[in-house]
Amino acid sequence: MNIGVIVFPGSNCDRDCAHVVSDICGRQTSLIWHQETSLATIDAVILPGGFSYGDYLRSGAIARCSPIIEVIIQFAQNGGLVLGICNGFQILLEIGLLPGAMLRNQDLHFICEDVYVKVENASTPFTNRCESGQVLKLPIAHAEGNYYTDPVTLSALQANAQIVFRYCDKDGYPTQTTNPNGSLDNIAGIQNAAGNVLGLMPHPERCAEALLGSEDGQKIFLSLINSLTTDSSSIAQHPIAHETS
Amino acid sequence: MSSHTPYITKDVIKQHGLSEEEYQQIITHLGREPNLTELGVFSVMWSEHCSYKSSRIHLKRLPTEGEYVVQGPGENAGAVDIGDGLAAVFKIESHNHPSFIEPFQGAATGVGGILRDIFTMGARPIALLDSLRFGELDSPQNQHLLKGVVSGISWYGNCIGVPTVGGEITFNDIYSKNPLVNVFCLGIVEKDRLLRGLAEGVGNTVLYIGAKTGRDGIHGATMASDSFDDSSETKRPNVQVGDPFLEKLLLEVCLEFLENDLLVGIQDMGAAGLTSSSCEMASRSGTGIELDVANIPCREPNMTPYEILLSESQERMLLVAKPGKQEDVMAICRKWGIDAAIVGQVTDDGMVRVKEHETIVAEIPANALAEEGPRYERPVAPPQYQDMLQSLMVDNLQDVHDPTAALLALLESPTIASKRWVYRQYDHMVGTNTIVCPGSDAAVVRIKGTQKALAMTTDGNSRYCLLNPYMGGTLAVAESVRNLACTGATPIGVTDCLNFGNPERPDIMWQFVMAVEGIADACRAFDIPVVSGNVSFYNETKGLSIYPTPVLGMVGLIDPISQVLTQGFKRVGDQIVLLGETKEDLGGTEYLKLLHYREQGSPPWLNIETEKSLFTCMQTLTRKHLLQSAHDCSEGGLAVTLAECCLGTPNHDRTLFGAHLDLSQNGLRLDALLFGETPSRIVISVKPDDVTQVLQEAEACEVPAMVIGYVQQDQFSMRVHDTSSKQTCQIHVPVQSLFDRWDQSLASRLESP
């Protein structure tokens, strides 16, 4: 198993993600330069956080033009697992693998702090090691995490259980005061309709060790690894994979 | 060449901030009159900011050597061996003048500059701290400056992906026209691969990489060597503009150079840009450098050699490649999309020779610009007002009559209140090393691949320094040591940022000399080497100087990492112990300023031997894992310290605790007991079973130790008795209300419409 972490100029959580996958979870990981044009040896892709291209123009807007993006889109369309964290989530929105867009945080500040999120859907390849309704404590660190989409798309996200994480209080209730950035419906993370692409604003890689105060984030990585090991056929059997093949 | 020299008038010399005498020295060095370009080069290199001409002879007093010092002062940054083949590289630097004129960019480029100092040494930066001083927040102008500085730091640090893990902010109206922005950065490098700013190997290629050179920041260093007046606003074009994305690329490029062993030396183009980097590299190596400005990548057409040499455009580096490696250097730059150009070569004649194509436009001995610049032993005299400042008839002050109100007022005063509003805007977790977050005595980051962590703190109480600069200097060192001890660390090195007024004034120079002496003596006593630093003079507007503000950035080693301590209480029932003795130390306290409107008196008196015993005691208790928490007593005194212990550790689980406290007044004034700032005191909490041993260990170290209460839930309750057991004071407040006042203070001052 080899999990690829894409490195754009300006990515700055790339090494943090690789550290969790290799040093904490004990799996092989490769840092993949954005000008690469192949993911041949890669089993899952992580788009890490950071400021790709300095977030100039708009978060993720320039990263969208990197050569690796075409390959990632192909990889996802073939059912490959793609996890976008923070800036990675913003890039997934820009390249259309996930619907919607990010606005500036409601208070216009960059916010770095721990938040609680509720696992709304625990049967995804990225959350299968969580309980449904479980509350995780994860750090956020962003200025543009105020998720927005049109009402029709929002209804579809709700109806298809594509809202995977919601900001909530300690007990799991999503309230306005526990929403750090003003995102629609307290959305902290969503997946695509096929369920193989997840984007989330919180940083699970920053809380995957007891030393750093919480191990909650490890669950996301272990879920991903779990999906790749226990059910290797899931990728091939994926509905999207059938559609594209 | 002299035939092309424009006539240098007295006015031109003055505009360049050079004295008549200095001009004569230039003529001596050159053996002729300089041309305008050369004059410009001398003016920046001999500016106070670059040359340290007023401070250098005094800085020699600082202890700079030690068993573990890998690199002392004189390089881009200092370095200390931390074992496992690694060195910690660190430095603190000021960006005061630019931050007043343009707070956002001023602070941002301050962050950019210090980061470059660290990664030019080959070290990957892993932590930033900021020590900030502003005027009081009731003025919109001061709010504007704070918001601008915080967003600038946040913008630059967050984007480049180096966590801002700590620092401090103090408010006093003396900083209204001269806010201070001091930025500390620490990086880690393999000890044997440390890079230096050298230009060795005659014939080796000199390369320029990074941002193109523009007209921004010309004479920035000269500006930073002058006082402010009403026209300071017009200096905004002298402030540089940063690009954190480009710096991130530059960082990765430099570390790739290191990995592939391509360089002889490298230096950041910071203050005085191309000029300082080239002459300092040549001067250090005893070589010369020949540059052709025609090859320098420029942002604008028709830039003159004068402008190119003096530009302070950010995110640029000058480097000397190993023979035959320049193509590899260029290839790495191409990969990351960074401009690179061959601009010259190393020579053997000790000259910095600048050409424009075939024409020589400047030719100056490198030493004259760097090592052999002017040195002044400026006149020194204590200010006439010093006696008045120090006189304080405590007996004439009314003792505190409502201790609860006083405690709440102190907790919500911006200097003491929670800085969450600020550090929430800083990415303090990127890198996944931050173990103790901002808001603690010191920040702690682990060193991946080892069992170690580093603790870092910035400290300096300028009011103490105003009242007694020597004592202020020693107290700053002592508080840093104590802060580190409270995280379980042993100090390994320090970097200093000395912010003062106009050195041409004997009273300011006296403050400087005394403070440096205090720092030197205390560092020597604790055996902590000063490995890098920075002096910022001329923090003065219309004749009004800031308080003398030396800021120390101290680094400590925690080994093994399991010894990490934090300040918040941990468990109901734990016993609370005060280490150290409380004396009647009201002079220069936050309490006196806030409730009696006085910044007067003698600062608390530090006994270095007492402080050393306390440190030894803390080390023993830490090593034996006898401590649940530890928090240093500083601004606001014992009552504030105890309250802060109840308000938890600003980590992932901030849990509030109450405390039940019984204090004995012992003949002290009540306000001195509660809010006096006697140094050498630490509040610890201990499991009930360990109390006896802790008291024994303290006694063995000759440290006074007393159980003063226990941790409980919800309520902060304090009773004070006098010698006849009569109750003299009672504080009884829900901890939640202490927390709310303390936590919301900054936001309520800064977010209100």
- What would you call the quaternary organization? heterodimer
The top-level CATH class of chain A is Alpha Beta
Shape of chain A: globular
Strand content of chain B: 15-25%
User: What's the end-to-end separation of chain B, in Å?
Assistant: 62 Å
Task: Kindly give the count of domains of chain A.
Answer: 1
- pLDDT under 50 segments of chain B (min length 5)? none
* Proportion of residues in extended strands of chain A: 15-25%
CATH topology tier name of chain A:
Rossmann fold
What summary fits the major beta sheet of chain A?
9 strands, mixed
Low-confidence stretches of chain A: 232-245
Give the overall pLDDT of chain B as a whole number: 93
Q: Give the termini separation of chain A.
A: 23 Å
Q: Give the full name of the CATH homologous superfamily of chain A.
A: Class I glutamine amidotransferase (GATase) domain
Query: What is the helix content of chain B?
Result: 25-40%
Count helical runs of chain A: 7
Q: What count of helical segments of chain B does DSSP give?
A: 26
CATH-level-2 architecture of chain A: 3-Layer(aba) Sandwich
How would you describe the overall organization of this protein?
The complex is a heterodimer of chains A (245) and B (753). Chain A has 245 residues and is α/β, with parallel strands linked by helices. Chain A has one domain: Rossmann fold (3-Layer(aba) Sandwich). Chain A is built from seven helices and eleven strands. A nine-stranded mixed sheet of chain A has the order 2-1-3-4-11-10-9-6-7, sandwiched between helices. A two-stranded antiparallel sheet of chain A has the order 5-8. By secondary structure, chain B is of the alpha+beta class. Chain B contains 26 helices and 28 strands. In chain B, the strands form five sheets. A seven-stranded mixed sheet of chain B has the order 8-10-7-11-9-12-13. In chain B, a hairpin with a 6-residue loop joins strand 1 (69-71) and strand 2. The chains are: A alpha/beta (245), B alpha+beta (753). The A-B interface holds A 9-10, 12-13, 16, 19-20, 23, 33, 49-51, 53-56, 109-114, 137, 139, 141, 143, 203, 205-209, 211-214 and B 154-155, 158-161, 243-246, 248-249, 335-337, 423-432, 434-435, 446, 448, 561, 651-653.
